[in-house]
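Letters spell out the chain; backbone shape is given numerically. Both lines appear below:
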Amino acid sequence: MATFAKPENALKRAEELITVGQKQEALQALHDLITSRRYRAWQKTLERIMFKYVELCVDMRRGRFAKDGLIQYRIVCQQVNINSLEEVIKHFMHLATERAELARNQAQALEEALDVEDLEADKRPEDLMLSYVSGEKGKDRSDRELVTPWFKFLWETYRTVLEILRNNSRLEALYAMTAHRAFQFCKQYKRTTEFRRLCEIIRNHLANLNKYRDQRDRPDLSIPESQQLYLDTRFEQLKVATELGLWQEAFRSIEDIYGLMCMVKKTPKPSLMVVYYGKLTEIFWMSSNHLYHAYAWLKLFSLQKSFNKNLSQKDLQLIASSVVLAALSVPPYDQSYGASHLELENEKERSLRVANLIGFEVEPKAENRVALSRSSLLSELVSKGVMSCVTQEVKDLYHLLENEFLPLDLALKVQPTLNKISKLGGKLSSVSSVPEVQLSQYVPALEKLATLRLLQQVSQVYQTIQIDNISKMIPFFDFTVIEKISVDAVRRNFLAIKVDHMKGAVFFGKQTIEAEGLRDHLSLFAESLSKARTMIYPPAKKAAKLGDALSNLAEIVEKEHKRLLARKSIIEKRKEEQERLLLEMERVEESKRRELQKMTEDAEQKRIAAEYEQRRNQRILKEIEDRELEEAQAMLQEAEKRSKRKKKPVLEGEKMTKQVIMELALNEQLRERQEREKKLQKYAKTMDHLERAKREEAAPLIEAAYKQRLAEEAALHEREQQQEIELSRQRHAGDLEEKKRLGRMLENKRILQERVVSSREAEFNRLKRERQERISQIIQSRKQEREVRRKMIFFLRSEEERQKRLQEEEEARKREEAERRKKEEAERQAKLDEIAEKQRRRMLELEEKERREREEILRKPTAMLSKPAEPPALGRPAELGGSAPIPAAAAAAPSSGKYVPRHMRGKVDAAGQAPPPETDRWGSSGSKPDDRPSWRDERKPTSFGSGSRTSWSSSRR
């Protein structure tokens, strides 16, 4: 192990060794310097040494050396300059990637060069056998040897960097960048095995990070930046897993993301959640979990509708249609029917686990737990308004499959709708995570659902049906496929079917009175009969006597009820407002208290941290001083031991300072060094004399040996030259005999050559003529096609112009019709206004006439009221058509000259005297009755003949 006084000397020595081609020695020298405990203080020279060190490691593909060096350099610059480690690692990865790309570009067949199952495995036995058996290596094997080692080294580089950076909080960004580059490496070169290992490595790093939380410089997941980096890494892992088709690894990535979200207790950005649910839809579709696939689509729809402001109506329709079709694709029967108790519990646990991944709340208690189901999903689609966003074809399909009862032609009506749906879909311009939606992928599942619905409805109507009829009713599948679907439905207790191929019929299970289908039919039939009876014989309405007596009571009660309700709502609002203000005040006080408490805790933590840091610095300084003092004393004692002088310097113990001890040690070392130098000079002089004497004695011996060697080599050269001349003569004679033997076939060779050339020339001319004919035919056919296309375009343009002209004429006719109708409506309205004006004037005249007649009646003398022979005075006027009879009590009333109200005229005592008149509302009992009519007379309706439609009461109003 070489030692250097300064790091610069090691770097200079390594460059000299590289210049002469000794890279291994240069790498070993730099490795010894980096791993030495002598150079643990960071300086700029160490960074340059590390750059040169990683260059040598990459050039020689020494991954273990690179890992050891980077770990030692991390220890050196961890607390001083962490950016230097980042630069060295970036340079290391850049060199490894560059060399791998260079090797890949040099190879001519990349797919054959990378056809290795495992980059970390050694050579296979068959490769070793082939290398020993075959004399020359083929092109594929040379490519493998050129490209594969560099890709192995690049993969080892990524693993090394991830291992070094896994517990460093200040290099989290570099860790995430390395993971992303490793993901892209696996994606670009289709390295599925390495991708699985990479995911497992990152997963173990996170687990160890949570397990050992007390380590220094550990990344803190509560910081938003760290959370975002780790989430971005997992989402990149999820994308690459789906692109490589590793669906199990993609599902594990989903679980990693969910676990990380639960760990940091923070929901990622909506853009990342859209990617999350978009990949979930792909995973569940590939695993044939249609129920979870539909739930994932529903969450994706909710996110897009809530957070994507650029979402177009077309994209929203496609996403909503995918949600509904995915929900309809779920089988309508229970998949876990007939399973054991243990399997059911496992299925519930799995459903709970998947529901948590999707983000739907499920009851955590086992006894109250409700798993995700098709019925709850469909009800949720309706409640969340998804059905209002889908296309009309999807609405029609949903109505046919879920609401209609068409036992005979359900499949025939569903088929054209499915044909339309299969043509829908396309690229989404405003959704980056789901670039394309194709609704045709749901068509097979929807055809199976339509088959099940038709069989279910047929089983409710028929007991037996022919197989040919079922095949005609279901155009999607052959009867063999229908039979398989039926068997699965029977096994899940969805249908009760028996197929008899000998009779060519299908028998459905018998339904008893307690059967669900028959019970539904009877209840529906009873409801229909009840509605029909109600329409034929409507119930008689009883007259409300109280309502007739108190006609305005309902209005008053309604107004009072509304007033009380309004008052109650105002009181409730005031209470809620007061409670809200109190809660707001409590919340503000609580937030202030928490802020004050947090400030106090922060100040206390800062004070404790400052005191701890101060004590730690003092302890470190004291330890450094003690260590230096001990080292100086040890150096002095060692120097005294090595010294041959009898007189030793006296140590005064605690009175001697560190500087004095260091000076004594340095003086002793200087004296020893001078003595060693003198001895070495004397020994070197002696060695020079000995070496000179030995060379003087050896010079004549070397000269004699050289001359003898020259003579031996000249004789050997002459002998070998004679042998070569003899061999050349023999080869020349053999070649002449071979030429004479082959010269006899020269004429035959010429004849064969002429025959082959002539046949090939004829074949070439024939092919040339055929090609010319074919080209002329193609030109002619293309001319005809262009002519037909031009005629078609002309016809279409003419037809469009004609249609446009007809449309303009139709619009002009419609405008004229509308104007004519508007004019007629205006004239009719004017006539109606004129008739209404005439009727109003006539009503005014009748009211005026009525008022005059009423005044004349009230001004008649009171003596006329006492005459029994003139009943019209108290009743209605005869000329106005009044014919009401006058009560006998009123006719028999004595003429006292006082006005007696009508309701008091029957109350006459036995002496024939009328009771004293009551006082009116103004308190005067002797007021004249003709001053103001009684309120009872005002409310009495009076007819004014056949030509009038008003009454006295209405005129008063």
